[in-house]
Amino acid sequence: MTTDPFFHPVSGFDLPRYAGLPTFMRLPLVEPGHDRFAEVDIGLVGVPWDSGTTNRPGPRHGPRQLRDASTMIRAEHGVTGLRPFETAACADLGDVGPNPADILDSMERITEFYGRMKRNGIRPLTAGGDHLTSLPVLRAVARETALGMVHFDSHTDLFHSYFGGSMYTHGTPFRRAVEEGLLDPKRVVQIGIRGSMYDREDRDFAAANGIRIIPVEEFHARGVADVMAEARDIVGSEPCYVSYDIDFVDPTFAPGTGTPEVGGPNSYQALQVVRELEGLQIAGADLVEVSPPFDASGGTAFLGVTIMFELLCAMIGAQKAAG
Amino acid sequence: MTTDPFFHPVSGFDLPRYAGLPTFMRLPLVEPGHDRFAEVDIGLVGVPWDSGTTNRPGPRHGPRQLRDASTMIRAEHGVTGLRPFETAACADLGDVGPNPADILDSMERITEFYGRMKRNGIRPLTAGGDHLTSLPVLRAVARETALGMVHFDSHTDLFHSYFGGSMYTHGTPFRRAVEEGLLDPKRVVQIGIRGSMYDREDRDFAAANGIRIIPVEEFHARGVADVMAEARDIVGSEPCYVSYDIDFVDPTFAPGTGTPEVGGPNSYQALQVVRELEGLQIAGADLVEVSPPFDASGGTAFLGVTIMFELLCAMIGAQKAAG
Amino acid sequence: MTTDPFFHPVSGFDLPRYAGLPTFMRLPLVEPGHDRFAEVDIGLVGVPWDSGTTNRPGPRHGPRQLRDASTMIRAEHGVTGLRPFETAACADLGDVGPNPADILDSMERITEFYGRMKRNGIRPLTAGGDHLTSLPVLRAVARETALGMVHFDSHTDLFHSYFGGSMYTHGTPFRRAVEEGLLDPKRVVQIGIRGSMYDREDRDFAAANGIRIIPVEEFHARGVADVMAEARDIVGSEPCYVSYDIDFVDPTFAPGTGTPEVGGPNSYQALQVVRELEGLQIAGADLVEVSPPFDASGGTAFLGVTIMFELLCAMIGAQKAAG
Amino acid sequence: MTTDPFFHPVSGFDLPRYAGLPTFMRLPLVEPGHDRFAEVDIGLVGVPWDSGTTNRPGPRHGPRQLRDASTMIRAEHGVTGLRPFETAACADLGDVGPNPADILDSMERITEFYGRMKRNGIRPLTAGGDHLTSLPVLRAVARETALGMVHFDSHTDLFHSYFGGSMYTHGTPFRRAVEEGLLDPKRVVQIGIRGSMYDREDRDFAAANGIRIIPVEEFHARGVADVMAEARDIVGSEPCYVSYDIDFVDPTFAPGTGTPEVGGPNSYQALQVVRELEGLQIAGADLVEVSPPFDASGGTAFLGVTIMFELLCAMIGAQKAAG
Amino acid sequence: MTTDPFFHPVSGFDLPRYAGLPTFMRLPLVEPGHDRFAEVDIGLVGVPWDSGTTNRPGPRHGPRQLRDASTMIRAEHGVTGLRPFETAACADLGDVGPNPADILDSMERITEFYGRMKRNGIRPLTAGGDHLTSLPVLRAVARETALGMVHFDSHTDLFHSYFGGSMYTHGTPFRRAVEEGLLDPKRVVQIGIRGSMYDREDRDFAAANGIRIIPVEEFHARGVADVMAEARDIVGSEPCYVSYDIDFVDPTFAPGTGTPEVGGPNSYQALQVVRELEGLQIAGADLVEVSPPFDASGGTAFLGVTIMFELLCAMIGAQKAAG
Amino acid sequence: MTTDPFFHPVSGFDLPRYAGLPTFMRLPLVEPGHDRFAEVDIGLVGVPWDSGTTNRPGPRHGPRQLRDASTMIRAEHGVTGLRPFETAACADLGDVGPNPADILDSMERITEFYGRMKRNGIRPLTAGGDHLTSLPVLRAVARETALGMVHFDSHTDLFHSYFGGSMYTHGTPFRRAVEEGLLDPKRVVQIGIRGSMYDREDRDFAAANGIRIIPVEEFHARGVADVMAEARDIVGSEPCYVSYDIDFVDPTFAPGTGTPEVGGPNSYQALQVVRELEGLQIAGADLVEVSPPFDASGGTAFLGVTIMFELLCAMIGAQKAAG
């Protein structure tokens, strides 16, 4: 399959990477009203929103910085030789406009945007936004059937509530998603969990519901290949979601985030784990918690978009396997 | 009057300024449950909260950075010779704990904290927080009678609502305060207003209610002394509130803020305007919108605490004038 | 005159300023091939190019950072009440693609782009780029008749050559422009010149050709209004160009530039001088030498776009005066 | 054993981590005069002092930045499940006030402070300060009997003197400590030593006295578990001290320090080595050489406090093993 | 007088400013042993030393950063047309090597270095270092006769002692210099003094000895010309010293310093005050307290070297007036 | 062999590392005209030039920052015990002065400078500059006979041209070098290649000419020792060049570069690979693409000079093996 050149990114051989408006990976901007919207296979979407953040804010600025950094991405995957933009019609769909002063209103806007994508057969690759973003996205993507999930993170995000009853924060999205039937907990695996803990309430919920947690100590001891083989087994051949919190990566490699935890994977492992998703049926993916105010050098965003490129290739690989 | 040495700050001649826990101005920490709470005349309070921010977040980190910078403040005002900490019992009352995931809950917590202060006869000097902070503070301080206000800012913060109906943002606090009868609009003056504008809805509200706006062009043309004489006339001899948004100052002098506007006063004028408040009956004051993530050098916080020291001296001067 | 809403920017009341792709001032992107290109009155163009830089590079990154900062600009001028986007059809025309490895090739590309604009009746407001940018722009804009020029800068940029004969650097553009008949030296005024000097070769050229230099010491002594009145007299009522090097402003207010000179105007004066251009026939304007690698806080870019907004209003004011 | 809730830290579920005064790990502040001082088991102390620094200064600012970062620490160790604050009475004892203009006076002040702790049965966990800090601490802690030591560092700090005879610098503390009988050199192991060298004078001293040096090349070749097993053997079951210079860690993971050396352990290994201290009789520990002026992002301090949390757990584990 | 080309700086027209080793102002390096040492008229010396600093350290790194920034200085003064390097033989004499672990030893080394200069008839222009630097310099320069002094600063540096008796800190040099007969207090003027104060002990010493203090409020009210006329009167026609603490300037213009005070002169005034020294008999001058760790952008150093260039021209102007 | 003490660096025990002019590794400055030039064995040269850069500029500032960081290097290699400065006569030869406005002129200047070195028997160790630097260096070093090369990089730099025909950029030097017969492609190995790709044009050229590419995935899988054994085999016992692009290293360890690629070697591996060059006949080496504007902390430069120290030791080791 070769896509229409309309969907091919601008080359750095023709236009320097610092020139031109920074869409995701230099792809065309195809916002919902655009006349080629329905042709898109995979839509890259920004969700500039961090109202779920309980500590240091900033991910609302993530999409813009990620787009800027993404102009460094080129046409071909260096290892597999996949040329994703010639294989699937990819486009930048723009940002969902949030309401920074109203959490519920913002979640509705997000779900509506992704619902429109779903009705047009567009699979989403999201640039967050804090981790609460995944919940309204899943409400659209998993509306009909519960999904499995590969979740890279240093936290489980399975807490019940914060501050005396607040149910919607970036520490609670997957608790809500399981409760709402959007995720099948037995097909969920959480990788990289670490750090000091409040208590074991989240772990107890995971255990009671069959969610598999792979702490970072186990990750380091077993290695990427072994851990990811188990992850693929857990998720199986049915559709799944991939949620990648940048704080999965060690904070030295990804300082631009709000709740870092020491001792995580390095940048090479950060890519390897995505390459090991090959063959899964990925209904959607996100990269969240990139926080530019804490990323003065831009290195976190650059790592983030490199991960997004790997996620994109994994989504297409899955498509090919299914096609 | 000489206060109990308990209320005197630590001297930099005895303990270097980088040593010890950074309370505001090296004052004793006297949280609400402390047994000397009722003895406090002026309480310095942190409100680490920015849920009203519609653009770049960060003021939730303000109180901590302001306390750190405040260890540079010494015992005596260089111009007037006032030794505030020996004149009034001043203390750091700690922070109000906000709920970052719930605006209304946070406003209730703030109002409750300041109500307790008021019942103990403590006048507040607040370190925000974004500008929405002023509203729940005024609900406590102005509970019984509407106050006048001297408001330093580059924005009026008099808008009706944002994003299709959100009533509580950092662009709306004084609209609400006038509506709720907390401020007497005819005794309100806003100084330093500037920048490009959405529309004139806020100006129309000001005009309709008798709020005096002094744009920065007028400020620069007339000079500090003339403008402040008018401000004192407007506010008069009845109790008033002073609200100081750090974005009143030119962003080169105060880059650490979320919504800067070019062309404001310099750092010397930033202090002068406060010195010109001498004689007013200041029931409370705040310094808001200091945003550490955008203040890499800490210069904004240092300017902020220097302004707070001037506000403190002005509050005591007012007290003296009244005493 | 009210423009088509297509040409109106997105409001921050509807979409937060950190959301959406950052075009200049949130205007529509109308690149040369766009079907509404010919409707544009004033085109905002980026020239991401710094091959003429003899010291610290970086202005090639200017247009992207300026667009990002420009999302803070709103619809109405705070002082004059002008609503420029409803008065003239303004659009972001995208970037001219330079060749960073070939100075002459890049200059041809730039002149060609601006020639196309000129043929469509679009007046340019350029975001550089280093100051050599002005030369290929003038080759298009002043193709038919020599222009006057108001030039804000700390350097004259009138040198003959560098490094043993290099004729095209950011220190030589206006020497070339005078030699090529693009500028009428008797209608050129350079304001803000300062700093230590190599020698007097540039001043001698100015004197010999009738170019008026107003050093910063004279600027500070006489004040903005008096200096600008003389500037308007020099330029007169015939068409002129406005070239604004950000290093005109004191480097504390504009650190993000390659060749700063201490002791320049402050940020308020930086805006005032543009407001004083009212009434001139401005055929085009540029803001150059913003260098993001030396502007960690983004303050220089924010000042830069505020100046661009003033330039835009001045260009429209001129149009109105002529209309 | 369950400690009095007075000694429990504030939870981030109740109060956001950016709120409140930043004591170490959100523990109560129990300075020497406090009436519960004698109840403390483990005291966290800051020594804001860097007069021993021969190159880039800054560790005097370490304790304040470390306290700030430490508000991210939670109640439970993620791997062992130990809840240290419920197991031992831990408190922030404040800072020792140094005299930045007098090295000998400062050392006396430090030894006196730690002597008082020792008389009250409080084991110290110190946040430096530069590495000279360890000497006056050891003068109190090892007053009666020489201790073994596990020393993590890239330098031996065993030099005789600097600059023609200066005996007290951050390159000499352990030479002095051995000379003064505070350390038993045969029970001392130094891990991670690397970098280019002046000469072999320090190595010769180590060899002559039986100090075991494990260079980083050996560390990388053998791995954490093997190296630490040897370290435990060397130190044995008698009381020991643990001194952790943050420059043990690779400077990419810990840039905020004055004398970095390339090629050290990563952040995961930085934690692992402390976990491997389990079972040692740790009479005291320190984390030194964190230098905020060279740690713009705060990542070094965050790594530092995570190491301090591991050290605290190791000290309690040792206590339990002994109890 | 035209100097030997050996003493002329490299031109930026020949070698870009970022190339070559950064000596002060691109002058030749003529260290004390050099065979042309005795030919030097004015020697630029670095004193990388900050052991007198009681708060934030860093000025030990000043000379290196100042040399780097000084490569931007050109051959001719923009206002007076003076070409200093062709008028007097100027050279970079290198750094005095301090002992960071011993204050008294360092002071002896400095005095010895400057004594050698004095014996060779070389007038010093010093780049500090903290303000204690001025004391050992004065011990050499004013060995035979007490000097007058123009002192630009926000602090008087006239305190008796710190921390219970430390006599040599950056807050005491001029107290010592008066006591030692190096300065004639009746010919000393201190300009720009401001900020909150510990007490009035320094002011009392000034008053008792006839030192004239001009607070910044008076400076702003009277203006540069008037204040400097008085300063010249105070100092008179006998030899004097000029000591310029960079914290004289407002911290927004000069953030890279350890003890900033809000509300100082701007960058233009920072230069003007030096230009007003014309005609004084300047026996030596220094620029101190530039602290690179707090000057991320390098702007403070750039301002500092521009001030040094003005000081150099003032020293030569004085020489000319005397010649 | 013991060299003349003239060629020994200054010790940090005598002069603090922040004092004195920063020559490379504190070696004597021996510029081409110096009377001991011909005695030099290995010359450290700066090439402050980045006109070949197609994306983010900055390496023109590399030599100055590298010299500054290099003052941390000491006299003896920590692992091998080699004391390079006593084994070979090493000196800082200063910078080649480039023409930033003319690529061809700059290349001629560089080749001329290195030709002079070659005629004096001096082997070069270069601090770039961008990677185009290697081409004019090779034109001098490999004038007579094609060299082998060990090339550490994340890019092949084997492209034909950019931007419609530009032949000299930092993406093309080794394509040119092979075409010009300066390199023997069958003795060239490129290690660490990674990242997304434009196309396979460079790989095709490598394959057609026998250049061996070792992608980073293979590097990580096989390990340093195995990969470097192959590299030594490829290069063999004939003279070779070593070119080290700092972007070989993972961008977290080396952020200060213009075209980073995620997933590279860590800092320890960055040194190990050079140590494994032992025994090769190294005719010259370079370390390029260090870009200070993107290296706020200076960590990249510090890693860079540590690599240069390893390269220097490898060059001397090779010399010894050959001697």
Structure report:
6 copies of one chain form a homohexamer. By secondary structure, the first copy, chain A, is of the alpha/beta class. Chain A has one domain (5-318): 3-Layer(aba) Sandwich (Arginase, Chain A), CATH 3.40.800. Helices cover 33% and strands 16% of the residues of chain A. The first copy, chain A, contains 10 helices and 8 strands. Chain A has an 8-stranded parallel β-sheet, with helices on both faces. In chain A, helix 9 (267-275) links the parallel strand 7 and strand 8 (281-288). The longest helix of chain A has 24 residues, at 299-322. The first copy, chain A, is globular and about 55 Å long. The relative contact order of chain A is 0.17. Residues 318-323 of chain A have low confidence and may be disordered. The A-D interface holds A 54-56, 162-164, 193-200, 215-217, 220, 250-252, 255, 259-260, 262-264, 266, 294, 296 and D 11-14, 16-18, 72-79, 252-253, 266-268, 270-271, 296-297, 299, 302-303, 306, 309.
Q: Are there runs of chain A of 5+ residues with pLDDT below 50, and where?
A: 318-323
CATH class of chain A: Alpha Beta
Number of domains of chain A: 1
How large, in whole angstroms, is the Cα Rg of chain A? Answer: 18 Å
Distance between the termini of chain A: 11 Å
Shape of chain A: globular
CATH architecture title of chain A: 3-Layer(aba) Sandwich
One letter per element, helices H and strands E, the order of chain A comes to EHHEHEHEHEHEHHEHEH
Q: CATH topology of chain A, which one? A: Arginase, Chain A
**If interface size is counted as residues with C-beta under 8 Å from the partner's C-beta, which chains form the largest one?**
A-D, 30 and 29 residues
Strand numbers in spatial order across the main sheet of chain A: 2-1-3-8-7-4-5-6
Average pLDDT metric of chain A: 96
Helix content of chain A: 25-40%
Note the main sheet of chain A: 8 strands, parallel
Beta-strand percent range of chain A: 15-25%
* CATH homologous superfamily title of chain A: Ureohydrolase domain
Total beta-strand segments of chain A: 8
**Class by alpha and beta content of chain A:** alpha/beta
